[in-house]
């Protein structure tokens, strides 16, 4: 097991919550929940915290094993079927994120570059990153993720003059159906944090690490939603494809620094690449557990090529990607909620059988 610190695990878990969610979800959440979109995040976070607690119970029963190892060790056949389900789950996340970031790069920076070139270059870089091992990926986050979070906190500080508090009202009129719908859309994205349970054992990962990363991610997302609501409002946001990017474009520090979105995306892209790298690692790590004779290094290029093809095969454009969020939760709720609860109830180590000599009771002398 490669060395990973608790601080790195917290940062890794937080990018699972944050990165993909920032691109496509804010507009959809505000469309249904209006000014109460941030409350949907809190409701979803409470459910995901329960899931993390269930998975931490499984970790304690199988010391020094991640969930892939625990499943196959305890249930050789059924466990492989569950591992295969999670491999497919992380593969879909990988394909979706690749296409999402490719479309975003094409819209924000490289409008004239074909999508297939952007995707090929991106996957080549991520393949090289994953081939270096999970410890190399974890070290990348030490600079980029804190810098990214600092910029997120800097945006409201630089744009506070545009705040309109009336856009947060009415405060006490809760649209529960809209909040539930927004929570449905965000559940699959925030629930991706369970991926850390498949990378580390209980010797490295503990419940407090997962809970801390969940809280950091949800609080930062809530802050982004508040800033969007205060500046853009509930009427404009649902009509924007990338509202966070449009918000950052409005930030002007000085006359010479009126393109604040450039340093923003320069920090954001590496964090997204790291998240995609972890998804690729989870897919290859799971395939290695299903086929132990096949080394991970030989699986990574093949999976990268498959992901490249599927990213164009599954999604036609960015609009179809955003519409996919509604159906995706219906599929993701099984590996993110139902299976973790099932595993916490039934995945237990075999009871050690006592020897016959130990079972015989010593009769006292009469």
Automatic annotation (TrEMBL):
It is a multi-pass membrane protein. It comes from the Bacteria. Keywords: Germination, Membrane, Transmembrane, Transmembrane helix, Transport. The keyword Membrane applies. The keyword Lyase does not apply. It is found in: Membrane. PANTHER family: SPORE GERMINATION PROTEIN A2 (PTHR34975). This is Spore germination protein.
